[in-house]
Amino acid sequence: MLLLKTNLMKKTKQKINHSFIKILTGSDLSYRRLALMSAKSKNPGPVVWLTGCIHGDEVGGIAVIQEVFKKIKNRPLLRGSLFAFPLMNPVGFEMVSRNLGVVQEDLNRSFPGDKNGSLVERITDKIFTTILKTKPNLVLDLHNDWLQSIPYTIIDPYPGNKYREAYEKTKKLSLHTGFLVIDEGKDPEEDKILKKTLSGSLIRENIPALTIELGGAYTIDEKIVAEGVKSIFKLLKELGMSKESDNNLGFSIPPKLRNKILKYSHQPVVSTSGIIRFIVKPGQVVKKKQVLARVYNVFGELKETLFATNDCVILGHADSAVALPGEAVIACGVI
User: Quick check: is 3 in a domain?
Assistant: First the structure.
């Protein structure tokens, strides 16, 4: 009887595959590689990708992906496949840099890449083609924001009727992450940049893709990691890939904002130099014209007061007390 139980337990384990893709040969002829994780159910179903640390200083996604696969190992996927690049920018990670080390280029502004292009474009081409080969139904790109920030989900601006199907699926799935959902808006200049992000490029391949901002950068916050894992399993449950789900996220959405998509804003910006002191906290709902922050000079004299330009939710604020003219110091989800 004991032997039968042991055999049954072995059968319920999910096999996790570890492999690498080569991205670069160094000057000393060493290889730089990207770690690739995967888990496949015996039952056909959706293909989902998780990607983390495309910005080398945004490290929380690495731990979230590790913990998701740990849970799947003991609670196998009901159907479909899960793939992940937990650390897409190992060079930037080791240098604690957003960009790709020496070349100081942003991987997440270089998609879909070019196999004959710059170093960064060659790397993003390998990432992008590897993902496309699996014909994914959803890609979740995990990022981190300012140190003082809450988790939230981002959907890219509407890309046009040609990609409407992928965009509508993205919108629908975004509401199942358990976090506030933010639409990046439709600024023409910003749109040019967002087209070259991983999520923006995927939607233009008619593949649903979401960006999830998981609190502050630089170090791993275990509380935020736990929230990220819960969020991903909510999506996997929605796709019929897992029974595992916990609806009780610590960063709960105010009732009146559930099933709503808010607009991103970094207004107001600072108009004077000085020392900024924030009055509001991330996650707080504020009214139009409510005081957000005050800027003082070195003698403590008030130079400027920043007021909310709309009813909004505070997503996060700057890491530094330094205020400079024209600088964005606060992020909001406009209600």
Answer: no
Residue owning tokens 């731990």: 63
Parent domain of 18? 9-257
H or E stretch at 235: helix 222-238
pLDDT digits (tens, 9 = 90+) for 111-124: 999 999 999 999 99
CB 233 within 8 A of CB 246: yes
| pLDDT mean across residues, the chain | 92
Q: State pTM to two decimals.
A: 0.93
Whole-angstrom distance, CA of residue 244 vs CA of residue 107? 33
Instruction: Report how far residue 126's alpha carbon sits from residue 325's, in angstroms, rounded to the nearest whole number.
Output: 40
CA-to-CA distance for 204 and 162, rounded, in angstroms?
A: 8
Q: In this structure, is residue 163 part of a structural domain?
A: yes
Task: For 161-181, give one letter per residue: b (16+ CB within 10 A) or e.
Answer: eebeebbebbbebbbbbbbbb
Query: What does the pLDDT look like over 237-271, one tens digit per residue?
Result: 999 999 977 667 788 788 889 899 999 999 999 99
Q: Is residue 104 part of a domain?
A: yes
Bond into 159 cis (ω within 30): no
Structural domain includes residue 1? no
Tell me, yes or no, whether 17 and 90 share the same domain. yes
Total domains in the chain come to 2
